[in-house]
Amino acid sequence: MNRIALKMLMGDRLKYYGLIAGIAFATMLILQQSSILVGFAKQTGAFIRDTTQADLWVMDPQVRFSQDLVPLRDTTVQLARGVAGVDWAVPLYQGFLRGKMPDGTSFTMILVGLDDATLLGGPPIVVDGKLADLRRDKAVFIQADKPEKKLMMKRGAGRPLSLGDRFTINDHDAVVAGTYRARDSFFWEPVMYTTYARALSFAPAMRSMLPFVLVKVKPGHDMQEVKRALAEKTGLAVRTNDDFIALTADYILNTTGILLNFGLAVALGILIGSLVAGQTFYNFTLDNLRHYGALKAMGVSDRQLMVMVMLQAGTVALLGYCVGAGFGSAMGWIVASKGLAFSMPWQVPAFAFAAILSVCALAAWLSLRRVFSLEPAVVFKA
Amino acid sequence: MEITASPKRSAVDCRALAKTYGEGDTAVQALRGIDLEINPGELVMLVGPSGCGKTTLISIIAGILDKTDGELNVFGENIAAMSAASRTAWRRDRIGFVFQSFNLMPALSATENVAIPLLIKGIPRNQALERAGQMLERVGLGSRRYARPAQLSGGQQQRVAIGRALVHEPQLVVCDEPTSSLDHETGYAVMEVLRDVAAVGDRALVVVTHDARIFEFADRIARMDDGRVTEVTNGQHRRSLQ
Q: How far apart are CA B241 and CA B235, in angstroms?
């Protein structure tokens, strides 16, 4: 009987392809929007992920995301170093500053200042030069990825800022001494690295200028215990990388409305998918009611009919999902290659599959209600 | 009107059978106390004007509609006393259906359509298809076994439907207007197939029809009007046999 169910399903090619296309479209919509949302969420935490050496971040409790800069006392670094289980603790400066390129093009950057002695907290991959080059006079590192987009000189030469170029940060001279590679970030501004002391000299003077202290936990010590001890000693917020990434993503996605917008798009995908697939499948069942009635009259049990309808729904769900996932992934690959936010961890396709299965199960259930309530005597009506 | 049957067990035995659709002011009495006995091996035609209750009667006899009152035994079994599941299984094993509009599955070949009752019974596909092929030979469609219903004429489709009704060797075959969609010649040929292939042994056939041209195939003709059997006469077939 299962083979008959499948032949019934595939017998009307137009409806069959329509069903698969509807489900594929819904799958694609869910996958795309979810992956873009995940992509954005990942990008919000790019800076934290790139600061690979630290285990813990010490910050003001009011900080809501990685670029939310609330200054701490300079003594915080020493306090942190005194906590049992701390391997090292270093200051990390971060600030939004104005720069001016050689041709006079002005721009805003995120300047990161690394501990002068250790240069801990630096970018994950250095492309040109060595990180130690930051100790050279006026040295800064710029991002190697897409300089033509973020660091383009718009006048004169019309080229991106490059290795060896001299420019100014807040009217102080700087030299590009190296380049690095990092993850795509949610924030548009280019990130430049220099030493902590030089960063303070570039930045406008304030009483306190230290936004973060990076901490490494000694091997063999419990991170949660060290975190608790640090918070107690400093009276500040102490967050693991994951905590800080989650805090940042939560704040940015919620305050910018990205979560709401993409959440709505995903919901819309499910809704459209439900309507298209559900309606088409329901109509398919209605068109076949006479045949179901004949089968009931001939002695097919309700259980057998249920298996037949569920098999039909499951088949179109699986095929529609595969087609939609294929197209969705291909489009995602294109989108991602253009540098846009797109990330598809396994949870996204799993979620999309569960959503599509639910939609088809709902459509099958609605159809089954009609089949179960069908009087087999209907077959005697011409 | 009660019909006296032979001493052996009846194929169908209706006593004061009644059926009412709806309730209260909207109630419609479709059957008003039918007494009818059909013997094994008999081909009985139910005739009468539209709305007289013919289709309701065969639906109840075939176990796909519940009676409201009266008694009904089919081959000695009181189907009203059966559970829904038992009745479904009973229909599967004992009843063959021939529908006015054939009700063949358009996506299946003639052989697959004929094999459906066997597949419902759980007979392995290969065996079911083999038996279905043999049945198609018997109804004269051995050369069209792979044809889809859309590739067959109306008469051929009805012969496929007859094959489907008989392939599992049911005791009772109910036919609803089997020739009404067909021209006279084709309808006649279909009835010949029904008489030659279906009406064999102890199998009983109940045929609902408006088509007076096929009355000659009946052993008996039960005329119905307003939910009652008003007259039962011997058909030409019985007369010719006598």
A: 10
